[in-house]
Write a structure and sequence with these properties.
The chain is of the alpha+beta class. The protein contains three helices and five strands.
Amino acid sequence: MGVGYDQHGQDITSAAMRACRDAISSNSIPAFRRVCSFYPFLQLYDPYLEFPFGEMKLQNKLGVPRSIVHLLDIEKVKSIFPYGEISKIEVVDGGLVCSSGVLVEEMGDKNEDCYIVNAAVYVGY
């Protein structure tokens, strides 16, 4: 689970990318390397067997405010995942548009809106 926001610039894609980064940074995907120790027969083929990260299947669910979902660039969001195959990205009603309390034109602000996105990333094989 992760949360991402874009306080300046009103870019929902940036908020979604941050939410996905947050979700994958707080899970234990590196622990999957230990799977080989639970299945010693796998090491008969390769004693230095590394976990096949490229074979991971990722599913994502993004909670995005309905009023701005049309601005979301799914391909950019997919680009933040370092490995694995993204089998599904589901976008649902969620997230939040709220006021950041300040408009800073130098940071690309068009208004005071802050965009918040929630992300759930599921990992499987």
